[in-house]
Design goal:
By secondary structure, the protein is of the alpha/beta class. The chain has three domains: about 200 residues, HUPs (Rossmann fold, 3-Layer(aba) Sandwich), CATH 3.40.50; about 45 residues; about 90 residues, Orthogonal Bundle (Arc Repressor Mutant, subunit A). Helices cover about 45% and strands about 10% of the residues. The chain is built from 18 helices and twelve strands. The longest helix is centred in the first third of the chain and has 17 residues. The radius of gyration is 30 Å and the shape is elongated. The structure holds glutamic acid (GLU). Glutamic acid binds next to loops.
Length: about 425
Amino acid sequence: MSIRVRFAPSPTGFLHLGSARTALFNWLYAKHVGGTFVLRVEDTDLVRSKKEFLDDILNDLKWMGLEWDEGPFFQSDNFGLYKEKAQNILDKGLAYKEGEAIIFKVEKGRVISINDLVHGKITVNTDQIKDQVLIKSDGSPAYNFACVVDDANLKITHIIRGDDHISNTPKQIMFYEALGIEVPEFAHIPLMMGQDGAKLSKRHGGVAVSEYRRDGFLPEALNNYLLLLGWQPQGDREVISMSEAAKEFEISKINNTQVKFDIDKLKWLNGEYIRSKDFKDIYPYFIKELEKNNIDPQTIDEEKLKKIIELYRVRIKVFSEFLDLADFFFKDDYSVDEKGRRKHLDKEENKENLKLALNELEGIDDFSHEKIEEVYRALADKNNLKPANIIHPTRMAISGKTKGAGLFEVMELLGKETVIKRIEKTLN
Ligand code: GLU
């Protein structure tokens, strides 16, 4: 039997991180077993479903690389099928009509058990379940019924979805039985919460995948992060590609406890990918960052820009940090760390040291980082100073920052003229 899974988003909102993780787990499982990943759009709520949300969801899935093998199928195309199936159940005497609505009669006193692939056996007594609407009086299907009809129609073998659907599953099992169809396997994955254990919301960081896409996160990092939430690759690895993860992915290894979204860990992973990806793949993100900050990349020497990026890609976790650290390469009105300025420039001795440095720098013809470093070390020796006492004031004077890439490399890239101009300006 070939394995078929599906992701079934409702286009009534943007793609939530939790849903993206559900999609990812389905995709990984399909890849792992060589099965089929189906995309079904649950748009039975004609009022709340919006094209804008659908486009967003499809774009996000593509961006994450979660390409589907079949679909998208739309529930709004199947209203006739749902009615026909509800009529079958009605004809069998298992449902009744209330006006135009068709209602499923729940047989009381039964125990329904779900052999959940993540949680193990879950049992529910039908005494706790009231009669279920199959078709509403306006002719539209109830979610649980449409879901079953479509999952059966699409020959879905494994339903992997969030824990928030556990209470729907016994109802759906009754519908499978009523329709005389084999019940698929179920795997409910624990929900993703905020750090404080509350439902994930805006205040824990963005909740929509599109926000991370817009903010310049890398899809590899987001995927990698989401797959670690509830699933652990062998050997304590944390950085793992989707294709490697797909090789190992097992539903039975999904954790059965809730997971907490940790934006810092996601950023850390993003940083790992920024530093390890091919240069040509990350270069466009830096260009976009410049443009976002109204710096025209065309006005910058490309070779120099590439060197600057190489220096800073290892120091940032998200692309927006690039210009926080490196804006001084591109403009004279760069941001200045005021506390650092007071610490490293206000004192008279700092200014004296800076003056000494300025003197030496003016005499350097080959303004290379090796040469600058040599000059600085010699200067410190000669004046019995710690190199730091010249380095910190210089860094502050030319970049407005207390930290960043290696100072001598920064100076070389900035160029002699700019370095001298900025130190002079600081001294005046
Ligand atoms: N449309 C449902 C949701 O977005 C899907 C439920 C399911 O996977 O069965 O939560």
